[in-house]
Amino acid sequence: MTKSIPAIELEIIYNALAAVAAEMDVTVWRTSRSTIVRELLDYSTAIFDRDGWNVAQAARIPGHLNSMSHFLRAILGRFVPAAEWGPGDVVISNDPYTGGQHLPDIAAFKAVFRHGRRIAFVGTLCHHLDVGGSAPGSYGSSATEIFQEGLRIPPVKLVRGGCIEEDLRAMILQNVRQPEILWGDLQSQLASLDVGAAGIDRLAGKLGEGRLETAMTAILDASEAAMRDMIRSIPDGTYSFKDDIDDDGLGPDPIHLHADMIVSGDEMTVDLSGCSKQALGPTNATLASTSSAVFYVLMAIASTKTPIAANAGCYRPVRIVAPPGLVVNAQYPAPVVHRVLITHRLSTVLFGALHQAVPDLVPAAYYAQSYVITLMTIDPDRGRQVLVEIEVGGCGALAHSDGASAQAFGMHNNSNIPIEMIEQELPLTFLGYGLRTDSGGAGRKRGGLGLWREWSIESAQAQLTTNLDRFRFPPFGLAGGEPGALSALYLIRDGERRALPSKITNMMLRKGDIIRLETSGGGGYGKAKARTREEVARDLRFRYISALSAARAYGF
Question: Which of 153, 291, 246 is nearest to 474 (CA)?
Answer without folding.
Answer: 246
